[in-house]
Design a protein that fits this description.
This protein is α/β, with parallel strands linked by helices. The protein contains 26 helices and 21 strands. InterPro entries: Cyt_P450, Cyt_P450_CS, Cyt_P450_E_CYP52_fungi, Cyt_P450_E_grp-I, Cyt_P450_sf, D-isomer_DH_CS1, D-isomer_DH_NAD-bd, NAD(P)-bd_dom_sf.
């Protein structure tokens, strides 16, 4: 798992085999917990598993269990008879010439060139004719997503050029597909699958809420097209005339599959299976090819010379001339593709499980050339990456990128030592499509560009492998090309912040709008429509564009930790815009307020300050002062504020009890994945001595009955938490804590029933209270709370700090980096839960 987290799982496997077994041992048994698996890099064993003895093997159940929640049941996720049915349904489609539509590819290649041309937009370049530095990989992923969605559904998502998106027809009961965010949902889902896969049969230990959200988004995307096809029938293609395609009778996979089955779940599963594979394999392969070409100018020069000789110079109106796979054989271009697949295989690991007691031809002990018996149910990991690192197969220069190895001595013939797209009966159906599309795009790129230069720093950073196939290295160029950031803020942006963003993200456009704010109510103003034009990222407290003004908006970074003030805003609730909270910025100062007011109360500071004001000396109450050591603090809502409060309380010798709505039974579930200032909080969730959870009154009462000296309310305000503490809850506290509980509310006033709180204070059910929030708020003159005994009230200032805005900007900057890297944003708001 550590190697996977470092994105070097395949390399770790090779290193471990070489270190533990030696370079001559290619098959071994690895114990993991209470089971064993076999790891092999022996082509003889691989051939037996995938081809000659394939009836004894199938993909493991965990593959279906891991991937089917995201992409459903299809040709890549099913097994046994179900897979055979899928194969019969899908395979004929890949034998049709129409599926290899290079006219479609050419249109999206031109959009790729337009995207690259934007990096020649007048900023100083090295010299005339050069682009500015940028990262090609995201553009390849955009292009292959655009190609694949158009091939499968007839409509491209146009992630490369959103302006080219056509208006989709209305489909009653089905919201329009989220074309803007489908890629990020797929990537986030894959990230969860990789982590779950590393845990194997213990994957259930991971919380699944975030994963489920991404799966649902991916399903909604496919369901819309499936339902449109089922409703329109053979007329489905009639609506495609305005999609930019030259003809409406072109091949569309969904349309063809629907002629064979009308099952919406099967259509969704099969198309999503092919969408994921079709986008990722080609994009990853292209990324690696240009990664190596940028670092090997000799190879680039030789390849470009061949391309110009074979296919001629570039012309925007003349396709490459490469029309079929047969033309690749014998070309240096094919050697470059093969060598890229060898050094950085797009599928570095494969696996199978024995369906019955069987054997592998090699790997026995003590003679590794003898067979090895394999019991039914044993999983075998096939390391395609490790096979491509064997010196005895590839020679002493195995680690060198050298395409010539594929054409020397009449050309290399390869077998099961080189299976970049799998092998045997489950060999990838689309490998020829991936190869021809890759070759076509490489030809067009090298026809148009005469030099490519590496700007990754450091240039020789180690390779990384991510979700099995994504191109990554330890260097790279971070870009937010095409993004516009608008900061709507009541506070001046610190000097140098905008310049620092421009330095780190040179392609990011930054606009600052300073609000007039009286420091009282949330800053809110209606901005002119033109200010929202082309804004993709927004920093704000509460000022939002109308939905019709937010057509380009992708991500809103809020300056508040809560979002209850936005729950009814149509831009929040009715769009696919991602919102991130400022969760974590309040932890230090609010925890100080909580502990400070509690200690002030226990040490009678309000009374002594009153004595000072009135000018007299009285020590009569000194014998009732209580310190915090060995007291119990209960934290209702164990988020960033609660975790930092727990940290401080434990340092004073207090025992911590935590309460969360959802159970946290495992170490992973107790970890905090939100933003936290470095060195603070409880990121691992190890401080609480007891952890309570559940949404019923009985669950809350169990927590309140745990003998609390200090009760901290730090839970979000939702419909479920309104008046969470009322008369019955104060009675539970009184019964178990005997009136010694001090209540501190830093959440929202309505979480506590104010009348019940007053009665509890005046009736001695609780010892006292500190309120930074009230209901109503602001607390009006003459309200009964003002005169209630044993209560400290402050005007919602516990979260105030001169460092507040700096922390908000730190969250924003980190999320900009994540956005540029295609990673999940931190503090992402769950709109359904309201926090």
């Amino acid at each position: 798992m550590k190697a996977n987290k470092m994105e070097r799982g395949p390399m770790h496997l090779v290193e471990s085999l070489d270190k533990e077994m030696g370079k001559s041992i290619h098959t071994c048994i690895v114990p993991i917990g209470d089971y064993q698996l076999i790891v092999t890099r022996d082509p003889e064993n691989v051939q037996a598993i995938l081809a000659s003895n394939s009836a004894d093997w199938d993909v493991g159940e965990h593959r279906t269990a891991s991937w089917s929640p995201l992409v459903g049941h299809g040709v890549f996720t099913t097994r046994g008879e179900e897979w055979k049915v899928s194969r019969l349904l899908v395979r004929p489609q890949f034998s049709k010439d129409a599926i290899n539509d290079l006219d479609l590819v050419e249109r999206h290649v031109q959009e790729l060139f337009e995207a690259i041309d934007e990096y020649m937009d007048g900023r100083p370049a090295v010299e005339a004719g050069w682009t500015n530095k940028f990262d090609l990989q995201p553009l390849f992923y955009n292009m292959t997503l655009d190609i694949t969605t158009e091939l499968i559904y007839g409509y491209s998502v146009h992630s490369q050029n959103p302006k080219a998106r056509v208006k989709l027809p209305d489909l009653p009961g089905y919201p329009a597909p989220d074309r803007m965010n489908i890629s990020s949902h797929m990537d986030a889902g894959k990230a969860w699958i990789e982590t779950r896969g590393a845990l194997w049969k213990y994957r259930w230990l991971l919380p699944s809420g975030e994963f489920k959200k991404h799966c649902e988004a991916v399903h909604r995307f496919a369901d819309w097209f499936v339902q449109l096809r089922l409703m329109r029938g053979d007329a489905y293609l009639d609506g495609l005339a305005d999609t930019g395609a030259p003809r409406k009778d072109r091949y569309v996979l969904l349309h063809e599959l629907a002629k064979e089955t009308q099952d919406p779940d099967e259509l969704r599963g099969q198309t999503l299976n092919i969408l994921l594979a079709g986008r990722d394999t080609t994009a990853a392969l292209l990324g690696w090819i240009f990664y190596f070409l940028a670092r090997h100018p000799r190879v680039f020069k030789k390849l470009r010379e061949e391309i110009l000789e074979q296919f001629g110079p570039y012309s925007p109106t003349k396709p490459s001339g490469l029309t079929d796979f047969g033309k690749l054989r014998g070309l240096y271009l094919n050697a470059v593709i093969n060598e890229s697949l060898r050094v950085a295989p797009v599928i570095p690991l494969n696996e199978r499980v024995a369906l019955r007691d069987t054997k592998l031809p090699r790997g026995g002990h003590p003679n590794p050339l003898q067979p090895i018996m394999v019991p039914k149910g044993t999983q075998v990991l096939i390391s395609t990456y490790a096979m491509t690192r064997r010196e005895d197969i590839w020679g002493p220069n195995v680690d060198e990128f050298r395409p010539e190895r594929w054409i020397e001595k009449g050309g290399r013939k390869f077998g099961f030592e080189f299976i970049p797209f799998g092998g045997g009966v489950r060999q990838c159906l689309g490998q020829q499509i991936a190869r021809i599309q890759t070759a076509y795009i490489v030809v067009r790129m090298l026809q148009r560009y005469d030099v490519i230069e590496n700007h990754g720093r450091p240039a020789d950073a180690p390779l990384k492998f991510h979700h099995t196939i994504e191109n990554r290295c330890g260097s790279g160029v971070v870009t937010l090309k095409g993004h516009k950031l608008l900061l709507v803020t009541p506070w001046p942006v610190p000097a140098g912040f905008a310049e620092g963003l421009k330095s780190e993200f040179p392609d990011l456009e930054v606009v600052i709008h300073l609000q007039n704010w009286d420091g009282k109510a949330l800053p809110l103003e209606v901005l002119p429509p033109e200010i929202w034009k082309n804004v993709t990222i927004l920093l704000t407290f509460s000022t939002l564009p109308k939905p019709e003004e937010a057509s380009t908006l992708q991500y809103v970074q809020l300056m508040s930790a809560g979002v209850n003030h936005l729950l009814d805003n149509p831009t929040f609730k009715d769009t696919n815009v991602k919102f991130c909270s400022a969760n974590g910025v309040h932890g230090p100062q609010i925890s100080e307020w909580i502990i400070g007011t509690y200690l002030a109360f226990e040490h009678h500071l309000p009374q002594y300050l009153q004595q000072q004001k009135e000018g007299y000396w009285d020590r009569a109450q000194m014998h009732t002062i209580q310190d915090a050591a060995n007291k119990t603090i209960g934290i209702l809502g164990y988020g960033s504020i609660g975790r930092q409060t727990a940290r401080v309380a434990r340092a004073m010798g207090m025992t911590v009890h935590a309460y969360t709505l959802h159970p946290r039974p495992t170490p992973e579930s107790r970890r905090d994945h939100s933003w936290t200032p470095a060195g603070l909080g409880d990121p691992e969730g190890t401080i609480p001595a007891k952890w309570f959870s559940g949404g019923s009154p009985a669950d809350v009462h169990a927590f309140l009955a745990s003998g609390l000296d200090l009760l901290v309310i730090a839970t979000p305000l939702t419909a479920q938490t309104k008046h969470l503490l009322s008369k019955a809850e104060f009675e539970v506290l009184a019964k178990t804590a005997k009136g010694r509980t001090f209540v501190s509310n830093v959440a929202r006033g309505p979480v506590i029933d104010t009348n019940a709180l007053i009665e509890a204070l005046e009736g001695g059910l609780i010892k006292g209270a500190a309120l930074d929030v009230t209901d109503p708020e602001p607390l009006p003159d003459g309200h009964r709370l003002w005169g209630t005994k044993n209560v400290i009230i402050t005007p919602h200032v516990s979260g105030a700090s001169v460092k507040y805005f700096d922390r908000v900007l730190e969250i924003l900057k980190g999320n900009l980096k994540r956005l540029a890297d295609g990673k999940e944003l931190v503090n992402l708001v769950d709109k359904k839960r309201g926090y």
